[in-house]
Here is the input.
Amino acid sequence: MGIGLMKFTLYLKAWWRLSRIPFLFVGILPLILGFVLAWKGGYRGAYQLCLLALIAVVLILWMTYYLGEWNDLQGDRLNHQRNRFSGGSRVLIEGILPVWVSLLLGYMCLVTAIVIGLILFLHHRTGPWTLPLGAVGILCGFFYSNRPFRWSYRGIGEILIGVCYGWLPIATGFYLLSGFFSQQVLLVSIPIGLSVFNVILINEFPDEAADRAVGKKNLVVRFGKEKMGDLYLGLSTLTGLSFLKVMSILQPKPNGLFVLSGIPLLLIGWNCVEIWRGNYRDPRRLEALSRNGLFVNLSITLILIIQKTGIGFVIGR
Here is the structure.
């Protein structure tokens, strides 16, 4: 019994790593923001609808992660510069789980996500754009590392991630409740999309040698770390400015939320100084850059959710 429990614990930890549970919030929070924007606009929907949409987003993310582990196995084996935010989970490489498990889980998530999309469309009657929105997420995630497109190998994966973790989940959450698209959705998605673009961009830095060896042609491989460091600086600046613009529009009178807004802005500033000094060449500092970039994205989304739910008013009192 003790051995069985130990094996179960080992496999559970392996599944947790393979599923990248903490990284799910990068997709979950924007969907919730979309719901909140719709609620504040006076639109409502059954809780079952919101729950199903949330599950579908998680399944699409898992599909992308699981199939990515399968397709990037060769590069991950060659990667000796990885950190906690890059280079895969290492579960398959370490042999904790059979390689086929990742492939099976990926396709199971794909099929289930499609079924949920059909339920939302046919049963909850969420509108004609329900299936196209889901299809965009599925196709971008499925072919992110899968042939024949392999977006992450062609230098456009970063752009698709910016869209699929920025505008797409926010627009989907808003549309499922309201039945239309809003300019406000596009506005709030700008700092979120820019920040998540930078998340994937900085995560490519430690993987450059391995990616180059297996023929990946992402932005860092194509243009090098120095030029992509400059791009990171520019996009970080745009992220901060667009976030301040969104906050000023949503909350013209400063309140306590502007104190919280300082968190992502300080992290953006710290990362910019590190990049400008070339400290991405230090593996330890590079990992900190990846961590801070992730926190920038999550904190921006969370602050916007708080602002739209009205908690910002309470904080500012």
Observations:
- The mean pLDDT is 92.
- The domain at 23-316 is CATH 1.10.600 (Farnesyl Diphosphate Synthase).
- The chain is about 75% helix and 0% strand.
- The radius of gyration is 20 Å.
